Amino acid sequence: MQWAWYRNFGGGPNYVTPELRKANRAVGWRALLRVGGCLSAALGALVALSLLAFVTGTSKSPVWAPLVLGVLLVGFVWFIRILASAARQREHNREVAAAAARAGRAHGSPGGIRTAGSRFGAAQVQAGAVGEEATALLLDMLLSIPGTAVFHGLLFPYDDKADVDHAVARGNVVFLIDSKLYRWGTYQWDVRRDRDVLVRTDGYGSPRPNAMHVAAEGYRRLLGPQVEVIPLVLLHGRGVTVGPSIISAHGVHLATAAQAMERIGNTLAATIGYWPDNPAVHAALVGKLKPPLPPRPPGPGNAAPGGG
Length: 308
Fold this sequence. Notes:
Blueprint: H1 4-8, H2 18-56, H3 64-102, E1 106-108, H4 117-120, H5 122-141, E2 149-156, E3 159-170, E4 173-181, E5 185-192, E6 195-200, E7 208-210, H6 212-223, E8 228-236, E9 240-242, E10 253-256, H7 257-270, H8 279-286
Parallel strand pairs: 1-2, 4-8, 5-9, 8-10
Antiparallel strand pairs: 2-3, 3-4, 5-6, 6-7
Helix pairs in contact: 2-3
């Protein structure tokens, strides 16, 4: 991983704070004390059994071997339970810290395309949702850059049935991101009837129209001329690469996941010290989040997930 921003901002998730380290150290010390108590109790039980065998003169009796083995087994189980409890507590601390770090900086839920199965088909929707969720995991790392906010599932201008998969904002820079999960191959931009289309360089498959430039234009009008809006199509998939034509005729960028993260992260990191946080941009993007769908009522044909 060669992302300069990732190295400069700790090379890890932004929730690893001194408070989290302190809480986890406390968990470790408590676990160590409990392990010490466990060993002391087991050793005390073995010493007591030895003294009892010596006093009663039955040290060579075969009954003592199962008792000693039982003490050792109980001590081992206790030891494992202590370690498991400490691991669960550390994981809980991590989840609490991650939630606190994301609060107010990560908005919406990825995978909203799952609701469009009747429009695009189950297979295409599943691939789209996997791509969106994979991108969301990557974008979470950008929260280590101070002042960065991430948004999932924004309204698409002029089309209430579509959405913008993700947006990342810091200062006066906003990236609008369209996630795609494609099979292997090299992809690049082409123009068909004045429309941006993604094509494979080997000519395999049908052209894939893309309207991210429309989304970018709509959000430029919303956010104002002082905000730089950069539309980007991010490609996931094993063996997926991009060809020489990586910027469409309408200014939409094309990149693999690794290339996109490098480009976005380095751009946002470069704004530190030049552009302060812009609460108005964040508020405007929050106002464009697609509302969550209400849960379907139980009944025939609306089985709960995971059922049957």
